[in-house]
Design brief:
Layout: H1 2-28, H2 33-56, H3 64-105, E1 117-124, E2 129-135, H4 140-145, H5 147-154, E3 156-166, E4 172-182
Antiparallel strand pairs: 1-2, 2-4, 3-4
Length: 194
């Protein structure tokens, strides 16, 4: 029973985080809005198709009002569902690479319940830092142990604290935030020759 509950909770978190991540990517990368514009542009086309269908399809007179209302409801609901699905796909495409890198970094670690889910990915253009927030059941000390592997998989270097708990007050144990800069930094090994 508890295992089923945890799977359902994980799926809920994953679904909502994909939607949130998709909206976030639409804001951060304006060129992705072309998909939203295509879907919104489909509203008038669907309206015209429905009007043509109403003229050409013969329906019994007493069923015509019900048929007309159902087609108009479909014309409203279909683009909304398509829009939500598109946003979800954009979030999925954004998250899949980062989640795979985390799974590869945690190769020798036993995953507690489910793998980490990317909740948020932001890029601070002034500081050139990428901020990733993951929902996970792994404690922070395991992430600290795998810090070098994470850097290698993301081809980046941790900046500042590097890793911390997420949430509003940075005390949520289920969320881990990574602060990274692109490019690996060579380790300082001291003087080789004297």
């Amino acid at each position: 029973m508890e295992n089923r509950y945890l799977k359902e909770k994980y799926n809920r978190v994953r679904t909502w985080s994909r939607l949130k991540l998709g909206i976030q990517q639409l804001i951060q990368r304006p060129y992705l809005n072309i998909f939203v514009l295509l879907i919104l542009g489909s509203f008038p086309i669907i309206r015209k198709l429905i009007n043509v269908m109403l003229v050409q399809i013969e329906v019994a007179e007493f069923l015509f009002p019900v048929f007309k209302i159902s087609l108009h409801i479909i014309a409203i609901i279909f683009p909304i569902i398509l829009l939500i699905y598109t946003i979800q796909i954009i979030g999925e495409r954004t998250a899949i690479k980062d989640e795979t890198n985390i799974l590869l970094a945690f190769t020798n670690v036993t995953m507690l319940n489910q793998p980490p889910v990317l909740i948020s990915k932001k890029k601070d253009r002034k500081k050139e830092i990428i901020i990733r927030e993951f929902y996970t059941n792994q404690p922070l000390h395991i992430w600290e142990e795998k810090k070098k592997d994470i850097q290698a998989k993301f081809s980046g270097t941790f900046v500042g604290k590097g890793l911390e708990y997420g949430g509003k007050n940075h005390n949520d144990g289920k969320k881990i935030i990574l602060y990274m800069r692109k490019g690996l930094q060579a380790e300082d090994r001291g003087t080789m020759y004297e």
